[in-house]
Every structure is written in structure tokens, then in C-alpha cells.
């Protein structure tokens, strides 16, 4: 029987800095993320260091908590790394952006990013990659453009690392299909104690809400993440609110173009292309003034209102406007502060904001029922939980159902 070991270097009983090393006859790193804190001092941002020689790195998806540390692995050499083509494209955009934001605190340089790019090898969903006596395959994770679950087969045993995934389909992606006959399942557990509302109903509710704002002459402002959420919002709003002007600003513009360049990774590329082309990609000051001079929908980074054009729009909204939060807001960010106390921190001063706002839960992660269904269909002999805050309780629950469950902390190695 194929022996396997898994070393947890990040995302053990936490969300952020996902990083694991799977050991078969090969040593392969799965994800290499970075944890960005908006508040708190002295907490660890980077995965724990890996001692030894890696044969390869497989990157599941482009979100920074899975990809943000990868160039650091190429300071001295570094192995080939594999991902879907869109994942590499988006990741490069995020690396460049983070270098700007982090400045001196960046754990890597442009030279290391360039070295990393020379070691990249594209791997499409479903294609087999043989490294020594281990075969790898990527499966659509239904999470963001190019996101993949990683399957590894060795000595007659099947290992699956889900990364972030979603089973319910969205406008951008068909949902992930559970992998069958899995021996070892390493599964994200972000929402092990929570369900998300059903997408279709939520879309309708949002569309009606936006229509009211437009009718009353205001702007519907969506501070949104560049990757995934910006594109989904364009599609949802255009599908329901046909004539409304949509302005897109911030890094989401570039990611939207990447989506259009990778039609094979989108559920309905033709429809998405039409929706995206109907939006105004804001070019400069004039477009920005336009956006807040007429009833309109504005979708802009930063998702958590930490700077970016979204913050500028917020300060210039027309009467009758409303703000919409559709994703996760880290504690201490302006998005979090808005939702908690309707205030933001601007150049060191707290500013009361009287614009009404609403939260819509458009999560790109599996909810609790999805996690349980995935586990049931995969039928694993062993489960490894990661990427969540409530892991000990979820582990206990699954043990109660008869599974062998591991909940490693960072630094732990498990024999599988
Ligand atoms: Zn993700
Ligand atoms: Zn994640």
C-alpha cells in the first residue's frame, strides 16, 4: 500500500497561509499562502519553513491565502510548480499588487517572481501529471476562475486536497463535483457550522433592492474583491437589472479581462462576455465623476473598503444611494467597521457614514451541508480538516459519524 505523509505548514486550525507538503515517493507542496492581518501585531503571516528538498509545488487557486508566499520558494532554485493557466495569470497580478502594498515588508522581490514564472508549468483540469510513482490531477473546485482540487494517486491509494471549493453553481462557475473513492480527504472547513442562503433567491432579492435604489435616483455601490466577486456581481446585476449603467473600477477590471480571455473556465462564457462588455471599465477621473452623476451600479475594489476607488466613491455618492457588502470583512478593516458601527477610519479620523448598507452572503465556499455531502460521497478512510476556525468541534462531530479525523496544527506531520 502506498504510504503517505502530510505536513501542515499553515492553515492548521486557522484560515490563512494555506501550505502543506504531501510526501509519497515525491515531496510536493500544496499551496503556499500568506496571511495578511489588518490588525494585531506579532502574529505570523508566513507558512512555517519547509526543511528539505521539494520535488514540485501544486497551486490550487490564486487567492492570496493560498498563493501569496510562493515566490519566496524561488529565492534559491526552487522546483517546478503547477497550476491551471488562469491561476498563474491571476496570481501574477496579485503578487505585483501586494509588492506595491507591502513595500519593504514584502517577503520576495521582483526577481523572485520572475524566477517563479520560469518554473511554472500549466496543468489543465483532468490531465494526468506523473511525478515519480505519484500521479496528480486537478478537478474544478467551483470557487474562482481556475480554482482546482488536487488529487494524488500513489500505490493504489487516492488522496484529495480540496482547497477552497463550492458545490452549488454560481453564474461564473458550475459547482465542484465530489471526487469518488477517496482514501485520504484533506478538506477546507471554513463554514462547518453555517449554511449559505440559496443563490437564486438571494440574487432576486439583491436585484429588487438595487432596482429600488436606481429608481430613487441613487448609486448602488459594491465594494468588491477583484477576483471572483466583481465578475459575479456584473453578471447578476446585468441579468436582472437590464438597462442600468454598471461602472467597474479597481483591479477587478483586469481580472474581468482575464476571465474573458479564459472562456473554457467559465460556465457560460458567451453570456459573461456580453455582460462584461455592457459595463463601463472606468478609465480615469471623468468616468468616476460620471459614475456618481447618474443613477448607477458601481462595483469597485477594495472589497473591505481599505482604500482603492471604492472608498472615493463612497465619499461622493448621490442622495438615495446604498452600499452593499457581499464578502468577508476582516476585523479592523473599514468594511468591518461599517458593518459594525457605520463608521470608517479615514486618514486617522473616525468618520460617521449615513449611507444605508446591506450585507448579502454570496460566499464562494461550501456551506455546512455541502461539506457533509462532499465527505459522504468521497467516502474517505481518513479526513484531515484545515482552513477553518471551528475545526475541533467539526472534527468531534465527524468522529461521532465513525470517521478517522485529523485536525493538525501548524508544524504537525500526520502519517496517512
Ligand atoms: Zn479562496
Ligand atoms: Zn482560502
Features:
Metallo-beta-lactamase, Chain A, 2 domains, alpha/beta, Rossmann fold, 12 helices, 30% helix, 23% strand, binds zinc ion, 416 residues
In whole angstroms, the N-to-C terminal distance is 11 Å
What's the structural domain tally?
Answer: 2
Largest sheet: 7 strands, mixed
Uncertain segments of ≥5 residues (pLDDT<50)?
Answer: none
Strand content: 15-25%
Ions, cofactors and other ligands present here are: zinc ion
Classified in CATH, the superfamily of the largest domain is Ribonuclease Z/Hydroxyacylglutathione hydrolase-like
CATH class of the largest domain: Alpha Beta
Gross morphology: globular
How would you characterize this protein structure?
It is built from twelve helices and 22 strands. The protein has 416 residues and is of the alpha/beta class. The chain folds into two domains: 5-194 and 379-415, Ribonuclease Z/Hydroxyacylglutathione hydrolase-like (Metallo-beta-lactamase, Chain A), CATH 3.60.15.10; 199-359, Rossmann fold, CATH 3.40.50. Strand 17 and strand 18 form a beta hairpin. The mean pLDDT is 95. The structure holds zinc ion (2 copies).
Chart the SSEs and their pairings.
Layout: E1 5-10, E2 19-23, E3 27-32, E4 56-58, H1 64-67, E5 80-83, H2 85-102, H3 110-118, E6 120-122, E7 128-131, E8 134-140, E9 148-154, E10 157-161, E11 184-188, H4 199-215, E12 219-223, H5 229-240, E13 246-249, H6 252-261, H7 269-277, E14 280-281, H8 285-291, E15 296-300, H9 308-315, E16 322-325, H10 334-341, E17 343-346, E18 349-352, E19 357-359, H11 368-378, E20 382-386, H12 391-400, E21 404-406, E22 413-415
Bound molecules: zinc ion (ZN) (2 copies).
Residues 18, 63, 65-66, 164, 387 line the site of one zinc ion.
Amino acid at each position: 500500500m502506498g504510504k503517505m505523509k502530510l505536513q501542515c505548514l499553515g492553515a492548521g486550525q486557522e484560515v490563512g497561509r494555506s501550505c502543506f507538503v504531501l510526501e509519497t515517493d515525491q515531496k510536493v507542496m500544496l499551496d503556499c499562502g500568506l496571511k495578511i492581518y489588518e490588525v494585531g501585531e506579532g502574529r505570523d503571516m508566513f507558512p512555517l519553513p519547509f526543511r528539505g528538498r521539494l520535488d514540485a509545488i501544486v497551486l490550487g487557486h490564486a487567492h492570496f491565502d493560498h498563493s501569496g508566499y510562493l515566490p519566496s520558494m524561488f529565492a534559491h532554485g526552487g522546483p517546478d510548480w503547477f497550476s491551471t493557466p488562469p491561476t498563474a495569470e491571476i496570481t501574477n497580478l496579485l503578487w505585483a499588487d501586494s509588492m506595491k502594498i507591502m513595500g519593504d515588508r514584502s517577503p520576495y522581490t521582483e526577481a523572485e517572481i520572475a524566477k517563479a514564472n520560469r518554473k511554472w508549468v500549466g496543468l489543465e483540469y483532468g490531465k494526468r501529471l506523473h511525478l515519480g510513482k505519484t500521479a496528480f490531477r486537478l478537478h474544478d473546485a467551483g470557487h474562482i476562475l481556475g480554482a482546482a482540487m488536487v488529487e494524488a494517486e500513489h500505490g493504489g491509494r487516492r488522496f484529495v486536497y480540496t482547497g477552497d471549493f463550492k458545490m452549488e453553481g454560481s453564474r461564473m462557475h458550475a459547482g465542484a463535483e465530489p471526487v469518488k473513492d477517496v482514501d485520504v480527504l484533506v478538506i477546507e472547513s471554513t463554514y462547518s457550522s453555517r449554511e449559505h442562503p440559496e443563490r437564486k433567491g438571494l440574487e432576486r432579492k439583491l436585484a429588487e433592492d438595487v432596482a429600488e435604489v436606481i429608481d430613487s435616483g441613487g448609486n448602488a455601490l459594491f465594494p468588491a474583491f477583484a477576483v471572483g466577486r466583481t465578475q459575479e456581481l456584473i453578471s447578476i446585476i446585468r441579468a436582472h437589472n437590464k438597462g442600468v449603467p454598471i461602472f467597474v473600477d479597481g483591479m477587478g477590471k483586469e481580472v474581468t479581462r482575464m476571465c474573458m480571455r479564459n472562456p473554457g473556465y467559465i460556465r457560460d462564457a458567451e453570456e459573461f462576455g456580453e455582460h462584461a462588455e455592457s459595463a463601463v471599465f472606468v478609465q480615469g477621473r471623468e468616468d468616476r465623476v460620471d459614475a456618481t452623476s447618474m443613477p448607477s451600479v458601481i462595483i469597485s475594489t477594495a472589497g473591505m473598503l481599505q482604500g482603492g476607488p471604492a472608498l472615493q466613491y463612497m465619499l461622493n455618492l448621490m442622495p438615495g444611494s446604498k452600499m452593499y457588502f457581499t464578502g468577508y470583512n476582516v476585523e479592523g478593516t473599514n468594511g468591518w467597521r461599517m458593518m459594525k458601527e457605520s463608521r470608517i477610519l479615514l486618514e486617522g479620523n473616525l468618520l460617521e457614514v449615513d449611507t444605508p448598507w446591506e450585507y448579502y452572503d454570496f460566499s464562494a465556499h461550501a456551506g455546512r451541508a455541502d461539506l457533509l455531502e462532499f465527505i459522504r460521497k468521497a467516502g474517505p478512510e481518513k479526513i484531515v480538516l484545515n482552513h477553518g476556525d471551528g475545526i475541533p468541534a467539526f472534527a468531534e462531530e465527524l468522529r461521532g459519524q465513525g470517521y478517522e479525523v485529523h485536525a493538525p496544527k501548524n508544524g504537525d506531520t500526520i502519517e496517512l
